[in-house]
Design brief:
Helix content is 41%, strand content 21%. By secondary structure, it is α/β, with parallel strands linked by helices. It has three domains: 275 residues, TIM Barrel (Alpha-Beta Barrel); 87 residues, Recoverin, domain 1, CATH 1.10.238; 119 residues, Alpha-isopropylmalate synthase LeuA, regulatory domain (Double Stranded RNA Binding Domain, 2-Layer Sandwich). The strands form five sheets. The protein has an eight-stranded parallel barrel with strand order 2-3-4-5-6-7-8-9, surrounded by eight helices. The protein has a three-stranded antiparallel β-sheet with strand order 13-14-15. Strands 16-17-18 form a three-stranded antiparallel β-sheet. It is elongated and about 90 Å long. It binds acetyl coenzyme *A, 3-methyl-2-oxobutanoic acid and magnesium ion. The site of 3-methyl-2-oxobutanoic acid has 9 residues, from strand 6 and strand 7. Keywords: Acyltransferase, Amino-acid biosynthesis, Branched-chain amino acid biosynthesis, Cytoplasm, Leucine biosynthesis, Manganese, Metal-binding, Transferase. Its cofactor is Mn(2+).
């Protein structure tokens, strides 16, 4: 197996996305996660671009160890000087320098002849080598260059000391077979290519960045460049997670292996999305919210019988706890029966048919049918007899930071009164209910929303409690008084939790 080096440029090319500018703290947080993910190289920024980016690269170089820290430059001494300064404290520093090699870049943008470009490329590599031994050269817009000229540039920069040669499809113009052929051409026509690592760097303008990167790797490239969630300028860069999981899933096809810890992929994707503010589409490959969510009956039935029917990746492999069966109007009896069983109901035959018909009527009106709806379907009273009844409650607040709640509950026919404080009315209320019921489940989420309009709007409170066994219980409560809705939701969750405990114990 050939070793595949993973070069993450989320903090440099990814950050070139419109609307993302990351500060030092944010870049550092992402860097630490990239180390957990197991990337080999972190391209931390472009130090010459701004004092802020200079500071970010400096800080990452100083604080993030065990991985190569790289900075980007133009083929220009002033950029290289600043980059070297930024990387001064890196354990393994790399300068990534380069220049445009396609006719349009040379003539129109740089206003240089091909000979001048070769000269400037070589000079930049030699200059960078004075500072660090590890110098990567990028031949910008390589795919739209002539292969013979590209080979000439690459041979010259390797002779000048480049340790890695990056062959970017800067504008995402290549087709996969063409990009593979170009990498193959470079490997077979650059005489000293054995002295450098060949790197693939693709963009997604035609939606082919993943396919092109894989074609380049298949053709012999040993370094993959890309970003988490595929973020980047215009249509973005190659999604690292897509290429990594393609190679993992189709190990037979590529002959390479990386040191990526795939179980960190989901956490890395979520962190990058949260910090950059770029939402991952639900249907995105590997890291989209629906990537392991089965929503139609035939698929759900198949997955319940054997996951392999519709899952080529086990969600756990990328750090997602489990797949999801979502009930919709496209679900069948098997999925409904499964979800009801998860809630503690065992039904089959005619009873299942009956519930299924009522389920379909409901599902046709709703996009998704949730556990709460299933409880109602099963008994119209929430499927559970409430063992805890809210008799009364009163809240006293000083209007600023302290509140006291007094609550009277009836539990199994016994009336219990207690009071507790909290940092607000809802917190005081939940603390009091905990004291009365002895609850130890953790409050994981609490939301409140209005479900009708007007001043008499009905408030809907939702409470999520995490049981000690790790299971999540959702409670809902409705009232025109939002504090009462909150109390009802909390009690509803406790009721369900108790019921669930009994069912689990019985089975
Ligand atoms: C494909 C890529 O992703 S390349 C990386 C893109 N990243 C960035 O652009 C980072 C952010 N950029 C910046 O902060 C600024 O553009 C800077 C600091 C790099 C340069 O700013 P300025 O000096 O004001 O120049 P400006 O950006 O307007 O123009 C770029 C200049 O660099 C030249 N240039 C572009 N690429 C290169 C290169 N690889 N090597 C040498 N010169 C280059 C251009 O020809 C132009 O030169 P000119 O002024 O002689 O016409
Ligand atoms: C600067 C280089 C590596 C680049 O990002 C590109 O050509 O796309
Ligand atoms: Mg790029």
């Amino acid at each position: 197996m050939r070793k595949l080096y993973v070069f993450d440029t989320t903090l440099r090319d990814g950050e070139q996305s419109l609307g993302i500018t990351l500060n030092v703290k944010e870049k550092l947080e992402i860097s630490h996660q990239l180390v957990r993910l197991g990337v080999d190289i972190i391209e931390a920024g472009f130090p010459a671009s701004s004092p802020g980016d200079m500071e970010s690269v400096k800080t990452i170089a100083k604080e993030v160890k065990g991985v190569i820290i790289c900075g980007l430059t133009r083929a220009a001494v002033q950029d290289i000087d600043l980059c070297a300064e930024a990387l001064h404290n890196a354990e393994y520093p790399r300068i990534h320098t380069g220049i445009g090699v396609s006719p349009v870049h040379m003539e129109k943008k740089l206003k240089l002849t091909p000979d001048q470009v070769v000269e400037q490329a070589v000079a930049a590599v030699k200059y960078a080598k004075k500072y660090v031994s590890d110098v990567e050269f990028y031949a910008e817009d390589a795919f739209r260059s002539s292969p013979t000229f590209l080979a000439r540039v690459i041979e010259n920069v390797i002779s000048a000391g480049a340790t890695v040669v990056n062959i970017p499809d800067t504008v995402g113009y290549a087709n996969p077979w063409e990009y593979g052929e170009l990498i193959n051409y470079v490997i077979n026509n650059v005489k000293n290519i054995d002295r450098a690592i060949v790197s693939v760097h693709c963009h997604n303008d035609l939606g082919m960045a993943t396919a092109n990167s894989l074609a380049g790797i298949k053709a012999g490239a040993s370094q993959l460049e890309g970003t988490i969630n595929g973020i980047g300028e215009r249509a973005g860069n190659t999604s690292l997670e897509e290429v990594i999981m393609s190679i993992y899933t189709r190990r037979d096809g590529y002959g390479v292996e990386s040191k990526i810890n795939t179980r960190e992929i989901s956490a890395t994707s979520r962190l990058v999305s949260r910090i950059t503010g770029v939402t991952v589409p639900d249907h995105k490959a590997i890291v989209g919210a629906n990537a392991f969510n089965h929503a139609s009956g035939i698929h759900q039935d198949g997955v319940l019988k054997d996951r392999k029917t519709y899952e080529i990746i086990q969600p756990e492999t990328i750090g997602v706890p489990q797949n999801i069966i979502s009930l919709t109007a496209r679900s069948g009896r098997h999925a409904l029966q499964h979800c009801l069983m998860e809630l503690g109901y065992t039904i089959e035959g005619a009873q299942l048919d009956d519930v299924y018909q009522r389920f379909l009527q409901l599902a046709d009106q709703k996009k998704e049918v949730f556990d709460q709806d299933l409880y109602v379907l099963m008994g119209d009273s929430g499927g559970i007899e409430s063992s805890i009844v809210l008799q009364s409650m009163s809240i006293a607040t000083n209007g600023v930071e302290m509140a006291t709640a007094t609550v009277i509950l009836e539990i199994a026919g016994k009336t219990i009164t207690d009071a507790a404080c909290g940092n607000g009315p809802v917190n005081a209320l939940f603390n009091t209910i905990d004291r009365i019921t002895g609850n130890t489940a953790i409050l994981e989420d609490y939301t409140l929303k209005s479900v009708t309009r007007s001043s008499e709007a009905l408030g809907e409170a939702t409470v999520k409690l995490r049981n000690n066994d790790g299971r999540l219980v959702v409670g809902k409560g409705f009232s025109t008084d939002i504090i009462e809705a909150s109390a009802k939701a909390y009690i509803n969750a406790l009721d369900k939790r108790n019921l669930h405990t009994e069912l689990v114990t019985e089975s």
